[in-house]
Amino acid sequence: MALRELSSLEKYLRLKKPNKYITQGDKKVPVLQHNSGSPLVGLVTIACHLVKEAKRPELLGDSAESRAMVQQWLEYTVTKLNGYRKEDIKTILKDLNLYLQDKVYLAGNQFTLADPLMYFRIHPIILDLAVQEKEQYVNVTRWFDHIQHYPGVRHHLPPVVVLRNRIYPSTHH
Amino acid sequence: MNFTVSISNPPLVALLAAEHVKGSVQVSVAEGKETQFHVSDEIQFNDASSISRYLARMAPALGLYGANIMEQTEVDHWLEFSAQRLCCQPDLAVALGELDKVLSLRTYLVGHAITLADLSVWAALKSNKEWPSLGKSFSHVNRWFSFLSSQVPFIAVGNKYASNKL
Predict the structure, then answer these.
(1) CA distance B67 to chain A (A)
(2) Would you indicate the residue range of the signal peptide (chain A) (predicted)?
């Protein structure tokens, strides 16, 4: 899964030549064998490296506060959204829904690396949701729909149909 | 093209449109008594939404008027909505309730990018005195409003022209 995410990220960043990755251990942790220096290990480490290589440092946040928020969500993506159990899904969606109530992007008003990485990871969960659940987690759905239409992000992933108007009476407000 | 802006009643939506298209359309903005937009000797516009419509059509590549006929119609809907529903005080809360419902599943009002719809609704709220106190009860409108307010063209216009600062 991580290799696919890194390849999508490379395409989003318009990196000219794709890197070669290997995986390590039974958790299939991605490893980037770098020409100059020691190998880079782990999804977030490699992703941050690719962002710097593409000269897009703003994707890691442009203030001390937003940099910390980006790191927080990158860590969330690899810890909470890695090998989660089915019964965790509701909690994940509930927390995320509450958090995104007053935000357009994960780090606030700016698109950062946290958004595409979270989008890649949460895609299978959102794909499985019923129409009514998508409306229940309305903030997650809105954020997800925005990111999947964000120029250059979606790539190999199938689009998720999102209704743009509410159809169920709002009982959870 | 010469654009004169009334200082006592600045046409925020037209100023925002001018700010958005300034890379592709040459407009010089001056301050004066009345809002006037000179296209040629024979043609001029005086009201904010005509001016912003004209500017949006002058720069079709920016997509400010939507990407297709459906979106154009939606943009027209929101231009009318902001002129009629967001200016008169009594039913502002009702209008905000409708807006809140629509914005729950959208980042921008029309399509997936910024359009005149966002500019005009933002401008109408920005100059509405009731909005700051009512804003807290409408979380989706509030999120959308502060998101736009953080974008460069909105900061530029807001700092320079809006009297109703938040």
Answers:
(1) 14
(2) none
Tokens of A19: 């890197």
B112 to chain A nearest CA, in Å?
Answer: 7
Q: What is the pLDDT of residues B92-115, one digit of tens each?
A: 999 999 999 999 999 999 999 999
Which chain A residue is nearest to residue B145, measuring alpha carbons? A102
Cβ contact (<8 Å) for A109 and B150? yes
Instruction: Give the pLDDT confidence score for residue B91 in this predicted structure.
Output: 86
Q: With a cut of 50, say whether residue A135 has pLDDT above it.
A: yes
Q: Is the pLDDT of residue B165 over 70?
A: no
Q: Could you say which DSSP state residue A90 is in?
A: H
A-B interface: how many C-beta pairs under 8 angstroms? 41
**Mean pLDDT throughout B77-84?**
94
- Give A16→chain B minimum CA distance, Å: 27
What average pLDDT does range A135-158 have in this prediction? 95
Q: Where does B27-164 have alpha helices with state H?
A: 48-58, 69-84, 92-103, 116-126, 131-134, 139-149, 152-161
d(CA A128, CA A150): 21
Tell whether the model's pLDDT for residue B18 goes beyond 90. Answer: yes
Q: Report the residue from B105, B112, B147 with minimal CB separation from A109.
A: B147
Those residues with Cβ within 8 angstroms of residue B64's Cβ, 6 or more apart along the chain or in another chain: B17, B20, B21, B55, B56, B114, B115, B116, B119
B6: closest CA among B27, B28, B29, B31? B31
Which residues of A make CB contacts under 8 Å with B?
101-104, 109, 135, 138-139, 141-143, 145-146, 149-150, 162-166, 170
Structural domains in chain A, sorted by start: 2-148 (1.20.1050.10)
